[in-house]
Amino acid sequence: MSENTRTLWNLDQAHSEISFKVKHMMITTVTGHFDEYSARAEATNEGFIDADFTFVAKTASVNTRNKDRDEHLKSPDFFHAEHYPEIRFTSTSFDGETMLGVLTIKGITREIAIDMDFNGIAIDPYGQTKAGFEGNVTVNRKDFNLTWSALTEQGNIVVSDSVRIGIVLQFVKSS
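^ thats the sequence. predicted structure below, dont judge the formating
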């Protein structure tokens, strides 16, 4: 890649995952992900420094392996999937270790900083050039108007405010 040429990298969904973890009743952790999502990157260098990254997840595709919980997450109490069908992240900078950007959930946009490792570039057995990234960030769900709350009889919070997001992305260089 030359400094002036922008190279498009498309998501390899078979080798990627965006997951979230949240404490339930403060004694266990529930993990979920989105079944429908897309991502892409546009870079001018092989280190992806200041590349442009975008990510979009369909809120109606939330999957925690529990149908009742997933329906609750799609409801107005949480994602309100009918009115807010997408979660969107757009990067504003990447220095090789920290990705800054804006995250929009339920119509609310906040700046976040993701601890992101660029794991390098490799050519797969089929001759495709791939780039890998892994990262994580913790957000407060209430910052995005995901404010539903309840207490157990013992006074434990049912759903923690802190949500850990795990990111594993593999991109394929566009030809």
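The helical segments are 67-74.
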